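CORE FACILITY INTAKE
Project code: CF-77B
Contact: R.S. (postdoc)
Sample description: multi-component assembly, two entities in total
Requested service: structural model of the whole complex
Turnaround: standard
Below are the sequence entries exactly as provided by the requester. Do not edit them.
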Amino acid sequence: NAGVMQNPRHLVRRRGQEARLRCSPMKGHSHVYWYRQLPEEGLKFMVYLQKENIIDESGMPKERFSAEFPKEGPSILRIQQVVRGDSAAYFCASSRSTRTVYNEQFFGPGTRLTVL
Amino acid sequence: KNQVEQSPQSLIILEGKNCTLQCNYTVSPFSNLRWYKQDTGRGPVSLTIMTFSENTKSNGRYTATLDADTKQSSLHITASQLSDSASYICVVRGGQTGANNLFFGTGTRLTVIP
């Protein structure tokens, strides 16, 4: 059972370009979460999705950022017109459900975005 | 304000020695607390989970404690190994509904040297 997969692992973009980050959850997991980690900082929640639905996007910037989790295929975090401040590690996590105290989120290896 | 603070920020120890990492939180209501290990360039991996009623839990050479009254947790690593070099992150799940109820510490960066 493969873990959470993210690609690309490293992404370099110039200011103004678009960045697309992909996340495939663990098999059997229908809940996906995206986090951002700036250097020397903790992970910050961005968005929570279930298949075809955004459940909570309270941590996502209102502009330029969007996320989706289609019925088929990976979840995608899209950043339009990237700026240098978007440079960070973006982690995806997945879980089987959110209903149990012991529910655990399994993290992917992250995508490191560098904006030149 | 819900916060998780960890100390020390970084730590260097000799291989074979023990160490203790601290986590203080103000998250309320409280659901559970996890310690994660994050190797460089990798995603966090859960080491242990503590609920309100649990005071101590071990996972191999890792022992976590929780004092729900003082809102403090510690992670004790025994007989450290070079492979223990990583960031250790304390994550507290609040009792609020919704997905945005995980609060992350900034981590303690542990370096084990031979």
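Facility notes:
- The mean pLDDT of chain B is 92.
- Residues 36 and 66 of chain B are 15 Å apart (CA to CA).
Invoice: internal transfer
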